[in-house]
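Researcher: I need the complex structure. Ligand is zinc ion. Inputs:
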Amino acid sequence: MRRAGSEYKACCPFHDEKTPSFTVSPNKQFYHCFGCGAHGTALGFLMEYDRLSFPEAVEELATSVGLELPTEIAFQQGPDNRPLYELMDEAADYFSQQLRRHPESARAADYLKQRGLSEEIAQTYRIGLAPPGWNNLLQELGSNAERIKQLETVGLISSNNGKQYDRFRDRIMFPIHDSRSRVVGFGGRVMGDDNPKYLNSPETPIFHKGRELYGLYEARKALKDITSLLVVEGYMDVVALAQYGIRNVVATLGTATTADHLEKLFRSTHEVIFCFDGDRAGKDAAWKALETTLPLLRDGRQARFLFLPDGEDPDSQVRKQGKDAFLSYMEQALPLSEFLFSKLSEQVDMTTLDGRARLVALATPYIEKLPNGVFRDMMNQQLVQLSGAKIPQKAPPFPRSRSRFRRGSRPTLMKPVHRAIALLLQYPDLASQETLPREWDKLETAGTNILKQLLEILRKNPTYSTAVLVEHWEDDTIRRHLGKLATTDLAVTGDQVEQFHGCLQRLEKEARQAAGKQVRNKLRPSDMTEEEKNLLRRLYSIKKAD
Ligand SMILES: [Zn+2]
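Model: Output:
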């Protein structure tokens, strides 16, 4: 972060850039990126960047400034999961000790050695051993009823007919860390041919397969700049590649890659390489990954596809061919565009006009899933080249002409209610104005309700900053909108108070018009109540005076 006037500047952590457009305003207690539009508070940052929940973000911030959260508050915000994390950590320690001490450990050590894994890699990834037997862990960690209950909650023990037993038995154990280095789950692999080959922790309050990636924490720890991340299927693949010095590898946990996974990956790198078997199942899985990726491919993000020879996995491949061969494999991975067009071209006869027309029909829905931007334009161009067709450009969802005003040169284009909210968020002092016109608050739109609440909050707490105001709302959608308004360039020239009043006056006019319309909708005066007739008379007289 570098100081720039009253603010700080840095390269944006949410998009790829060379010149800093990410600003942090200590005054507003708010960050904003002029490149990608990311914005929010300190809490919002932790939630977006580290994928923390709201209570977790509060806890993290409190800890960072040396504050202990009162436990009753932690409980109000959600269940207190700290004991669960502690228990997972103890379990990871237990498993890794067993790898050294247990009588059966020689077999496990042999297995790892035969796989070419060094002591160092085993320690880096905290690999362990769940010994054979039904209740080793239960006896070690289940010292009282509460802990037994917690062991069950985190999926380390299962129960059947009231009898509890270890979930992981006679397996090599791989702890799964979240981005904050906490153990959230385990993967267990058999050493022999037992089934299932891989067993994962079930979904628990602290573990969600659709969000976690094995090896991401370790990759981020090992590498400063991650130019690309390879997504493989098994934890053995991750550690085997790590053994060969290839550290930018993560594994999904027995699920297809989700949008949540991808968002997480693209936060650490700008290129994701999916690795699949070259067989039919692998190709199908790759296609699914492609579909999930398309809507997330903002400019600067890339996805490629690596297909291994039939029957090989990254683990076997790297052991057979070595590091350099594997790296060159990675370099040759198919760009998403090539994979998309080649797969679709297979379904049509490209030598005929009909076939090429069909390709356009097939490809268009996929290209439309891409966010607007250079990459999408290039995909369209490539489709034109391949098919020889001239593709009518669909109008973008927002008419292009509007972008002319984006820099705030015509702030009047903002709805008055939005502008009033934006002014209030950016200049909270405005709320202390005694002479606010009040007829507008008869309007019952979502916007005016928020404006009313904002004024209310500021009357009670005149010192609140922009950030505190935005965080007041629990609803994510509202918070996002408010965050946007808090960072919109309002191009305020002259007096903010006057502008704020102007907005409220326009709202008043809207309120009157809405009320008038409501009455006028009842066409015949005979349908009106006496009260409504009076309102109508009053409205007409005000209108004349306007
Ligand atoms: Zn940005």
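Model: Summary of the prediction. Residues 2-77 form a domain with the DNA Primase; Chain A fold (CATH 3.90.580.10).
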